[in-house]
């Protein structure tokens, strides 16, 4: 498995294909942090590898050892093209990690306005609270993220 994860970090598409052709089940195996190949590929922002893994049956809603999914990772990192691909492949928009965080909460917290809008347009529930009782709007207020506050307010008042 280390080989596959190293190839993903390097963006070696041909090497990844070779490993997955040899060991097809490795598409959904986790490393010691609970990362699956898909979670890692999205975290490093590799659209081509993400597409390959999804085409080969990667679990779009797999969660790492903290309960974070690939969609949560791109909401944090800010890769809108990958977020769109994950959503098109049935990523669970409102999935929560082990502290109650959602992709929307991450996108708001880290100022990813394009992803915030995309999540809202695809059914993100802005009323979901994290373990501290905070919604995405509350996180926007904490961060002083006025553009996220406006997006959320427009959605909540629609």
> What is the overall pLDDT average?
95
Name the shape in a single word.
elongated
Span of the ends, CA to CA? 47 Å
Helix run count: 10
| Low confidence ranges | none
The whole-angstrom Rg is 16 Å
What class would the helix/strand composition place it in? mainly alpha
How many strand elements? Answer: 0
Order of helices and strands: HHHHHHHHHH
- Major sheet characteristics: none
Oligomer: single chain
Residues in helices, as a percent range: 55-70%
Q: Report strand %.
A: under 5%
What does this structure look like?
- α5 (70-77) packs antiparallel against α6.
- The model has no long low-confidence stretch (mean pLDDT 95).
- This protein is elongated.
- With 158 residues, the protein is mainly alpha-helical.
- It has ten helices and no strands.
Give the SSE layout.
Blueprint: H1 2-10, H2 13-22, H3 37-43, H4 47-55, H5 70-77, H6 80-88, H7 103-109, H8 113-121, H9 136-143, H10 146-156
Helix pairs in contact: 1-2, 3-4, 3-5, 4-6, 5-6, 5-7, 6-8, 7-8, 7-9, 8-10, 9-10
Label this structure with key terms:
158 residues, mainly alpha, elongated
Condensed summary:
The chain contains ten helices and no strands. It has helices at residues 2-10, 13-22, 37-43, 47-55, 70-77, 80-88, 103-109, 113-121, 136-143, 146-156. Helix 6 runs parallel beside helix 8.
């Amino acid at each position: 498995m280390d080989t596959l994860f190293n190839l993903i970090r390097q963006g070696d598409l041909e090497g990844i294909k070779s490993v997955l052709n040899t060991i097809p089940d490795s598409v959904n195996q986790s490393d010691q942090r609970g990362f699956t190949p898909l979670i890692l590929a999205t975290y490093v922002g590799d659209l081509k590898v993400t597409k390959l893994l999804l085409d080969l049956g990667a679990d779009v809603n797999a969660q790492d050892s903290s309960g974070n999914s690939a969609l949560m990772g791109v909401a944090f990192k800010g890769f809108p093209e990958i977020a769109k691909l994950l959503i098109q492949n049935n990523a669970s928009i409102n999935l929560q990690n082990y502290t109650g965080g959602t992709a929307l909460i991450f996108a708001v917290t880290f100022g990813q306005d394009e992803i915030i809008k995309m999540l809202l347009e695809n059914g993100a529930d802005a009323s979901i609270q994290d373990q501290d009782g905070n919604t995405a709007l509350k996180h926007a207020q904490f961060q002083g993220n006025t553009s996220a506050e406006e997006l959320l307010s427009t959605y909540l008042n629609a």
